[in-house]
Amino acid sequence: MRLRTEFWVKAYIRRCAVEGASAVVVRHGDDDAGSIFIKIDRLDGTCLLFGPAPAGLEGAESDRQWMPCLNPAGADCSAADAFLSREANFDSDLWIVEVEDRRGRHFLDDSLVTGVS
After folding, report:
1. How is residue 72 annotated by DSSP?
2. CA neighbor of 104 nearest in space, from 67, 52, 51, 49
3. CATH H-level, domain 5-105: superfamily
4. Are 105 and 23 a contacting pair, CB within 8 Å?
5. What is the phi/psi pair of residue 9, to 5°?
6. Per-residue pLDDT for 57 more than 70?
7. Ranges of H-type helices in 1-115
8. Taking the alpha carbons of 85, 76, 98, 9 in that order, is the dihedral positive or negative?
9. pLDDT for the residue numbered 67
10. What is the pLDDT of residues 62-93, one digit of tens each?
């Protein structure tokens, strides 16, 4: 059973704070099962953007898994905002968490999925 979205987001924000990064909820979605997108603003006009990995991956039924939504090396913040706006128009239950960290730390290391297309 997967942890409620609200609890996961609160824990993630606390993790960011412990590491010295500022994190805020920019968009509050469904408390139980809303999708989460995480924008890492590097405070230089670029950011990283992570969203839910595709359904059906091993372990995804109990653990949240993440993948880059745009260029994994970084993207323009305006491109990320446009992407998130389109997603919000499609899914009214989604959450957006924005983290400000000049080093681009995302704190999702063990949950990142690579090589999925």
Report:
1. T
2. 49
3. Protein of unknown function (DUF1491) (3.40.1530.20)
4. no
5. -60, -45
6. no
7. 5-18, 77-90
8. positive
9. 94
10. 578 999 999 999 999 999 999 999 999 999 99
pTM: 0.90
| 8 A C-beta contact, residue 26 and residue 96 | yes
How far the first Cα of the chain sits from its last, in Å, is 26
Digit-coded pLDDT (tens) for 105-114: 999 988 888 7
Domain borders along the chain are 5-105
Rounded to an integer, what distance in angstroms lies between the CA atom of residue 49 and that of residue 78?
Answer: 12
Burial class (CB in 10 A: 0-12, 13-18, 19+), 87: middle
The predicted structure's pLDDT at residue 56: 63
DSSP helix/strand/coil, 45: coil
